[in-house]
Amino acid sequence: MTKDIDELFDAYFQTLPHLLDHTEGWCGLNKFEKLCTDLGYGTGMPCILNFLADNPRAIEMLFAFIRNGVCDPYNMSWAEALNLERFQDDGF
Question: Alpha-carbon distance 46 to 59, whole Å?
């Protein structure tokens, strides 16, 4: 009998109860790398790139996260970094 995706996801995270704790910085990146490796996208940091290349919706969600972060007054450095005048000649 095949488990539904929610059951599989829950079972995976039960085996790694602290995977979603402390996701900031390199610790979080290493945990995301483990998930990508376990999903079959290779090993090491390239597996994250392989995952993103294979899942454009994940990239769209990252863009949305960054867009929402730019609107957050606590992330004014992101807004400053995205000064649109700077990118006018980049062909986007």
Answer: 15
Task: Decide: 44 and 33 in contact? Cβ < 8 Å.
Answer: yes
Q: Which residue has the higher pLDDT, 7 or 40?
A: 40
- Residue 74 Cα distances to 11, 45, 61, 77, 78, angstroms: 36, 29, 20, 8, 9
d(CA 84, CA 86): 5
> What is the C-alpha to C-alpha distance for residues 40 and 21, in angstroms, rounded to an integer?
22
- Digit-coded pLDDT (tens) for 6-32: 888 888 878 777 777 778 889 889 889
Residue 51: how many CB atoms within 10 A of its CB?
20
Alpha helices in the chain (DSSP H): 5-15, 25-38, 46-54, 56-71, 76-81
